[in-house]
Amino acid sequence: MKEYFEKQRNVILSKKDLIVPSIIFTVIFLLFAHVYLLVNDIRNHDSLLFNGYGAGITSGRWALQFMGETVDKIWGGYNIPFFNTAVSLILITIISVLLILIFDINKKVNAIFISGIFVVFPSLTATLIYTFTAHYYIFAILLVFIATYIIDESKISFIISTLLVAFAIGIYQAYLPFYISLLCLKSINDCIKGEDFKDILKRGIKYLVSIVLSLVIYMIILKIVLAITGLTLSSYRNIDTMGSVGVFELLRRMLIAYVDIVRLPFHMIFSVNKTLIIKFSILILYIVSFIMVIFTLKKMKEKKLKLLFLALILVLPFALNSSVIMASRGYTYSLMSYTLVFIFILPLLFLDKYDFDIKLIKVSNMVTYSILTLAIINYIWSSNGNYLALKTKMSYAEHYYNRLISRIESTEGYIEGRMIALVGEFSDKSEVDLWRNPDLSFNYDINTDTFLRENIRLTFIKNFVGKKIHIVSNEDAKKLAKRKEVREMPPYPYYGSVKQIDNVMVVRLRNIDNLFEQ
């Protein structure tokens, strides 16, 4: 053990000239992209509570529940955005260093760009928005990167890696694709370096075994935990059917996964390519990667190595988009698509191994660095746009609810503690919520919701307006919606839209017929 740590110390010292500037630039990029979140209280619809860690065992996330409950007992599981975000950013900085070590990066500028694009990617922004659980999720990613880094050291490290990944996907299942992608890219990187065919193949088989074992261990522990607790998996997004995909459905998802990667330069997918700049960037990087693949194949002398390298390149799209294959109903979103960041990193793996003296490499470097600079600036801009939009929507909802409560309290018949019925949907045509528009070029898919939604009204009012109100159940609201006197009331905010009926303060909203469709 002492020898191992001494070896790692020497490796880090040998890469010090790359790691130090990489950390400095990583911190700079992180601050530019995420400081607005760090210094403001910004929530999305799922992070309105002041405690908790999210869905646990019933969503298959037994490790998340274990960590969440452990922290709650030791410290208190409070949702403190500054602290949770700061912890997340520290962890992501460590991960960016591991990226350099895993791919054995040799050039300082490549290390900076790899770290830079990794810490501004939309999936990180989407994760950090979930302030109550982001630090657990980032910790899971860290475990996957540690597992990838140590897997080749020994038999014990192989076992440790497999267990770490099993625990990581017990926090969030969508991080198994991270492991798959990293191992695939690690093998591609070994081919580029010209390592021995047999060694790469042996390691590849070992990687496959580790991937399968980690998933098996995760499932075994999940079944044991479900049996002990007496809980069952939630039907939300078909989580309870996890692992029971038919052959034809599996093939369909595999096709979608591949096609989505091909379509990235032309169609918006998972919010990672909303702007024309990013679509253009991906197209150019595809071209550079293709040229580098051809260049590498020509340099390789061993036929077996060429075939293995080509096979890995063809498998890579499946690896990068394997969340589509694994997800229930194939449904994915930006939070689950972090592995697509490797599309931006792949050209650098090639260019890092070749000499600048070659004209093709020199031109490819200039193009890649220019494109990555544009992409990093674009993603920094997008992150700040999303944070500003959420902050503004929170402020909008707070003012809206304050006006609503003032109106209720000033209505004849109101007394403190009286039940309130919000009948219908908030759809005030005099109000403008520009930030909710999903067509805004910076809006990610985690930023198209509203804080006026029926199932989060009470939570928002309690936690951000500071009012303890009692709202009738949805069933009681439906009964009131059928009453003639309620249907004849004008919709809020018109005069007469709030009235006391049978000791209940009724607020007649719009679209009350939609209640009967729920």
UniProtKB/TrEMBL annotation:
Xref: Pfam families: Glucos_trans_II
Domain of life: Bacteria
Transmembrane segments: 18-39, 82-102, 109-128, 134-151, 158-180, 207-229, 276-295, 307-327, 333-351, 363-381
Keyword annotations from UniProtKB, A to Z: Membrane, Transmembrane, Transmembrane helix
UniProt-recorded name of the protein: Glucosyl transferase GtrII
